[in-house]
């Protein structure tokens, strides 16, 4: 017979499970072996141990990184066939319990058995294959290079082993061997026991694009999973800064699982910009599992994203092909300073007090296209304060120097305020990287979005006190999605205005 205390505890447990859910993110170092079978087996063995630990720590959902089972196989298509198979569609008979279906590709079978055994829902990365001779109508088949599609895919296995969902990555990044998904249906899932909470799925570089993330936000989704394999080379594209900023800007819960290597790290669990758990280590050999609780219902209002492109915007706002980042070395002699740097209509102003001159900081500004090798350029307007010696390339993130010397080696601030004027209304992602905690709470940002005059947007970001002492870099990164090229916009998002063509 339950005592009153026991009943009270039961009631608490029930109400807890209604309000929150324990979730896990694995930052995983991909194992590489001689063959596809050996490589995937080695990684699956690690997943098996990690899902067991996640289960023991109470997690109901585990997110693993992009390429986590295959590792990055390379840029030749021929290398990928052994790592790919035609995966069943959610809802098909084979998808009910792949664990016991001999016809299902073995890595998916093993993932299903793992999820079932530990009763933890699992998000994992596989390569789905489409035979265009069998399915000529499948989106993208009309432009298939060899009669097949090789799709970078996130699969979701429910806690009962069922294949719940499958999402094909829409925005590839340096993945010439694979095919970009042309499907325009965003993907969500709800795991058993938590049916009322839909999660949206996207992968890595999708985060900086309008589709599918903004489409999902516009549909009211507040919880997201993101497998990624996002490297640390680019100063303005640091994975932790982007994850936190996206969660903050979209007022969403984000579970981001990155690959771990000497050039790739940064995973986290975020609730409306607050980092509940973060992993970042460019040297660790072992994997890192993050487990924490996230709320199921968010009391603060949802974001209503702006700047979701329509086909007419693309024609109205041509991209200035010539634009590049400009930078300016900041005067770090101790004392008060201010500097302004503009690029076309984007203007950045910083006022700061320097405590100590170090190797140097720059103010950098971009209006136009941001670029990375073998990636379609994307439109951006940004202002950044970056640690950089005068002689070096300021958009290469100085991971090694930061590790050896910490940020103070580049100089020390006592206060710093940035004002940025952007030429059009757009989503602006505020990003502050710090030394010891890696990320500060957005409460320390003192972010102010000024009144818009005409199409312009003014933002101010101020750091002081202990927050600025921790500073590594700071940026306000705007994404005028409507200026992206058609390559970036194969699906349109946001509320559609029926029958109106401007
Ligand atoms: C930004 O715009 C405001 C309003 O037009 C102006 O007062 C301010 O000086 C501008 N700041 C910069 C850095 O251009
Ligand atoms: C930091 O700056 C903000 C806004 O500029 C100000 O309100 C706050 O009092 C300052 N805090 C400290 C510790 O200086």
From TrEMBL:
Residues 1-20 form the signal peptide. GO terms for molecular function: hydrolase activity. InterPro entries: Biotinidase/VNN, C-N_Hydrolase, C-N_Hydrolase_sf, Vanin_C. Residues 21-296 form the CN hydrolase domain. Keywords: Hydrolase, Signal. PANTHER family: BIOTINIDASE, BIOTINIDASE-RELATED. Belongs to the carbon-nitrogen hydrolase superfamily. BTD/VNN family. This is Pantetheinase. The lineage of its organism: Eukaryota, Sar, Alveolata, Dinophyceae, Suessiales.
